[in-house]
Amino acid sequence: MKRLIAIAVLLSVGFSIDSLLVGAASAAKPGGPTKLGPPIPYYAGNEYLSGQRHLYAADLNGDGIDEVVFSGHIRWGSKFRSAVVDNTGKNVTSKYIRPNKTSAELTEVYDLNNDGRDDLIFWGGTDSDYKMPSYVYLSKKKGPHTRKMVTPKMWYHGGGQGDLDGDGRPDFVGTGLGGKGKYVVSFKKKKLLARKIKYTGKKCCFDGLGPYKIHNGTDIAIGNFDADANIELIIADWLKEQDWMAVEVYKIKGKLIYVRDDDGISLPPEYFETAKGKAKIKKYYTTAGMKALYDLSHDVRLEPFDINGDGKLDLIRWSRPYSNDGAAGAGMGEFWPIHTYAQMLINNGKGKFTDKTAKYLKAWKMNIGTPYYFKYVDINKDGLTDIFYSAEAAWASEWKYGNFRKYTAGVGFLINTGKGFKNYGNAWIKGLQNKAMDASKKIFDYHETKLTPNVALGNFDTDADLEIASCALGGNNVGSK
């Protein structure tokens, strides 16, 4: 059955224009006119339209104005097609990406080939009906982006950028929950290059590295985290026995990038920080319950960032641990994890990280989805880098699908105060998304009970301020009621 999604498009940051859904989000109070963009068709065989999951801002033509990119899963029989919408709300998918059949947990947006236009990496999506190859869309002077396929077929769940080969350009590495091998995607000598990572260590490893049979990498952070000259890859895992692993690049030869264990990297456990922090979450998780778990966290995200401004690369880690007591199986029914715990991990410069969340993060709300989308911007124009984060979820805290209790959408800003970060933003974005949902009800035969994908931060007009793009999901297009 043909389905559509409505894009209730742009919520502005600090500025408003007539033709888009806008609302201020800098130092000013949110507000502004709204307008619904066009329905974007995709196909599903199930009333729960699971395919469309993520929104991104991407300047695909190099004009300084971002387009909105939609991506998602081929899941439960749905045949989602990725889509692109311009800042007027027009569907311009065929102008940039064709063919557009992809299935991606997330999409990487950056100028891979260094031509002033954003490129797109749709990497095989976890929870898709089957394992998928990854697709790289490279911009060119005229016409749609050129599509390149990167194998093997994988279920990718996380990814990161970093200069693995020392050429001054960021390379891309995905990490996943299935398939074989790990690849580095680069653009060198005017060609797309996919090189395989060769692990030469001896430890119990995962995600295509080492002898461990189950690949359970959830995210990856890339950078120089210690005192040597080598680039490290820190991979998060959701298995209870492993939690994380670290390797360093020590040799590059042909289409192989060699990595070995880096014993100097050390991270504290997930979701615990200090005695005070431990007590804060104790009511959600029993000791017996945690021991019964097969895994610790449904989602773990790692973001490299200099938190305290000392020039050393720190880590921000989000995790969403299960609250299961072992009676019903992890992740089922009432045990579905809904409490995301954010940690500020400070690096001593030698790769040893210490949890200093209580010092560097204020007003974090735990009952939200784990953010998958991050953007680093000076949102309040004070010269300090702030962090925008977004997670798709349901705005209704008690919304349920089957036996799964969904969590509140995690959308907002971590505002940099110079002494740490203060969480801000979830409430006003919710209000603006409610306007989008109300508008979508006028043209769809049913609405997805306040279920929304993530939102995207970008520059969707010609001024210097940033805007937020949002959308609401719907059923059959029935026109205006």
Automatic annotation (TrEMBL):
User: Which Gene3D superfamilies did the record assign?
Assistant: Integrin alpha, N-terminal (2.130.10.130)
Name the InterPro entries on file: FG-GAP, Integrin_alpha_N
Family matches, as Pfam families = FG-GAP_3 (PF13517)
What keywords tag this UniProt record?
Answer: Signal
Keyword Aminoacyl-tRNA synthetase listed? The answer is no
Q: What is this protein called?
A: VCBS repeat-containing protein
